[in-house]
Amino acid sequence: MAVQMHVAHSSIMRGVGVIAGVTYDCANSDLPSASASKIQGASCMDGSIDYANDSIGRTDSAAAHGYIDNPGKLAGQKVWLFSGYNDGLVRRKAMNTVAKYYEHYLGNVFYKNNSHAPHALITNHSGGPCLDVNHDFLNNCNYDAAGFLLKHIYGRLNPPSSNSSGGSILAFDQTEFVDPALVGRVGLADTGYVYVPNACKTTTCRVHIVFHGCLQYAGRVNNAVYENAGYNKWADTNNFIVLYPQTEPIGTLPLGDNPQGCWDWWGLSDTLSGNREFARKTGYQISAIRRMLDRLAQGSVSGGGSSDTFGKPQHFSVADNTSSAIALTWQPNSAATGFNIYRSTSSAGTYTKINSNPLLNASFGDQGLSPNTTYYYKISAIDGSNHESAKTGPVHKKTASKPPACDPYFSDNELHVTLGRAFAGFDKGQVVAQAVGSLEVMGPIDWDHFSELIKDDVLWPSYHVRYCP
Predict the structure, then answer these.
(1) Alpha helices in 348-427 (DSSP H)
(2) By Cβ atoms counted within 10 A, which residue in 28, 68, 99, 297 is the most buried?
(3) Dist CA 247 CA 215 (whole Å)
(4) Which backbone phi and psi does 391 adopt, to 5 degrees?
(5) pLDDT for res 271
(6) Do 397 and 329 meet the contact criterion of CB atoms below 8 Å apart?
(7) What pLDDT score was predicted for residue 306?
(8) CATH topology of domain 317-398
(9) Which pTM was predicted?
(10) Bond preceding residue 254 cis, omega within 30 of 0
């Protein structure tokens, strides 16, 4: 949903962070029904088909018809992607497609793909064990996904607060943002939430939208996401308002239109006329979120504050790394029209400029690097007359090792059995799911018990109940 909202309204966006998502309109709003789109959506999530070029074509077509903003507005924006190699639901190839899609339009993508995290929202402070199936799908993997995401979009930020006492979580009525005739039918809960730092009650602030995952709506997990996902502590010290819109399930398993309370990226229901526009500005959920943003923006004023002084960039640092990329951030400077980045493989070596055009904003994901290799960086600022500032001192970072090969599969046990990864067996007199090949016990066969399986094809397809290391 973050991708669809970002692309549909790119003219008002600064960037996007995507955790376990699929590419824009991947389910294909041109298909004749929500049922057909939902079927295609399965291959979107498992990555069995590369839909990047199809999504690019639908994006350009939708923009040509005025259904979404011109994708040219994406140029210069910041995209942060996350795919844990233990994610067996939205699998690695699906997120590779998202990376390919965004690189077509803007290039500046940082793709975190060396974490051992499973399918969940990842934190460094709250939630259950990292390699576990937690009820709220909030997993503590000692990685501040919210912080890294925000820093890549906005550049260097003030350190987060130690708690979230610097603001208020406010509940609001979401039904007023939906056509009264459609309340209860478009998958939006009656109540949404917004976190407002104290400073934002008197100062104009930015707004960051957080879309929870399937089965993470407040009606099921209470305050887990809007209090504990990690965004509020960054909002306190950096003047962000955080909008947490909420979904609700439509129907029940197995035949409901949206029984897990997911955001709508396939059209919800064949009985809901008009929602083939789910990826457009006019989509029921996208248009409601836009109205929420407009309400938050009422009475705001632009400008104000002191002007920056042009000069050497400040607070230049390495934010993160993978086996093939390094993320860099620095202090934003409104007096600069762009920045240049220089790279070397030694501190005292020759530094070569790696950007063809001055970079906008205050972060960069350097891609295509070699594993286990140390890289050194300096940056400079460019002003409106194309004058270049002095370069910063060097910062350096070693790229990581390649993550282990992994073939994970995550779902409820009922679906594991349906798709042939498990079968109905017996354990201690009870009917249970057992993994094909290994015969390992997975628990009851229903939609409420989930298992992570790893596939091993050494001799024949065999599944084990475990995570990759």
Answers:
(1) 413-418
(2) 68
(3) 9
(4) -80, 155
(5) 85
(6) no
(7) 57
(8) Immunoglobulin-like (2.60.40)
(9) 0.96
(10) yes
Which SS3 state, helix, strand or coil, does residue 308 take?
A: coil
Token digits of residue 353? 């400029």
* Residue reference for tokens 């929420």: 292
Domain edges within the chain: 2-297, 317-398, 408-465
Which of 134, 81, 137, 139 has its CA nearest to residue 106?
A: 81
**CB-facing half-sphere around the CA of 299: CA atoms within 13 A:** 6
Q: What averages of pLDDT result for each successive group of 10 residues across the chain (469 residues)?
A: 98 97 97 94 95 98 98 95 97 97 92 97 96 96 98 96 84 96 95 96 93 98 97 96 97 91 94 88 97 91 71 96 98 95 95 94 95 98 95 97 93 96 94 96 96 86 93
Give the Cα separation of 44 and 95 in Å (integer).
Answer: 9
Q: 329: which 2 tokens?
A: 């951030």
Instruction: Tell me the two tokens of residue 462.
Output: 């065999």
**Residues 207-228, buried b or exposed e (16+ Cβ, 10 A)?**
bbbbbbbbbbbbebbeebbbbb
Tokens 């939708």: give the residue.
Answer: 62
Q: Sheet with 15-19: list strands edge to edge.
A: 15-19, 78-82, 109-112
Cβ proximity of 166 and 232 under 8 Å = no
Other CB atoms within a 10 A radius of the CB of residue 302 amount to 5
Amino acid at 382: I
Task: Report yes or no: 279 and 264 within 8 Å, Cβ to Cβ.
Answer: no
> With 0-12 CB in 10 A as exposed, 13-18 as middle and 19+ as buried, what is 240?
buried
250: DSSP letter: B
- SS3 of 97-153: the string is HHHHHHHHHCCCEEEECCCCCCCCEEECCCCEECCCCCCCCEEECCCCHHHHHHHHH
Q: If you search the block for the tokens 């055009």, which residue do you land on? A: 357
Q: How far apart are CA 388 and CA 445, in angstroms?
A: 64
Pair of tokens at residue 158 = 């003030």
Task: Map tokens 């084990």 to a residue.
Answer: 464
CA angle 278, 69, 179 (to 5 degrees): 40
- Taking the C-alpha atoms of residue 354 and residue 403, their distance in angstroms, rounded to an integer, is 26
Task: Determine the Cα–Cα distance for residues 400 and 326; give it in Å rounded to an integer.
Answer: 9
Kindly report the backbone phi and psi dihedral angles of residue 72, in degrees, each rounded to the nearest multiple of 5, phi listed first.
-60, -20
Nearest CA among 399, 414, 360 for reference residue 112: 399
The whole-angstrom separation of Cα 313 and Cα 389 is 8
Which DSSP symbol is given to 448? S
E strand intervals along 211-357: 240-244, 317-321, 326-329, 338-344, 352-353
Residue 258 has a pLDDT of 95
SS3 134: coil
pLDDT of residue 457: 78
Bridge partners for 447 per DSSP: none
**pLDDT value of position 460:** 81
* 247, 189 contact by CB (below 8 A): yes
